[in-house]
Design brief:
Layout (H helix, E strand, L loop, with lengths): L1 E6 L2 E4 L4 E9 L5 E7 L6 E9 L2 E6 L7 E6 L4 E6 L8 E9 L2 E4 L3 E6 L1
Parallel strand pairs: 2-11
Antiparallel strand pairs: 1-3, 3-8, 4-5, 4-9, 5-6, 7-8, 9-10, 9-11
Length: 117
């Protein structure tokens, strides 16, 4: 099994920055790690994910965060990071860490990000 523990959420004013961290524990080597978010009354959506495969490390971003968010992974620490800059009120949501291998998905408990205008 895999446990994912997120940290780094909080409240910030528009234009500010936050960095989220997600550490994975367990014996399974995840080939996908990423971040999703869910705002009240809305479905969970992809923010960014990073895939480790034959082509190397490939990041993928939602259009709404391109140029503002950066995802990175430290394999030595089994941790994925999400650096969020130029935050907007519409970025307010609970952010969930995802880890995946094959058809198996693992989720963190979520961390709240609140951006005020």
């Amino acid at each position: 099994q895999v446990q994912l523990v997120e940290s780094g959420g909080g409240a910030v004013q528009a234009g500010g920055s936050l960095r989220l961290s997600c550490e994975a524990s367990g014996s399974i080597s995840l080939n996908v790690m990423g971040w999703y978010r869910q705002a009240p009354g809305k479905p969970r959506e992809l923010v960014a994910q990073i895939t480790r495969g034959a082509s190397g490390i490939v990041p993928n971003y939602a259009d709404s965060v391109k140029g503002r968010f950066t995802i990175s992974r430290d394999n030595t620490k089994n941790t994925v990071y999400l650096q969020m800059s130029s935050l907007k009120p519409e970025d307010t949501a609970v952010y969930y860490c995802l880890g995946a291998i094959g058809y198996r998905n693992f989720w963190g408990q979520g961390t709240q990000v609140t951006v005020s205008s």
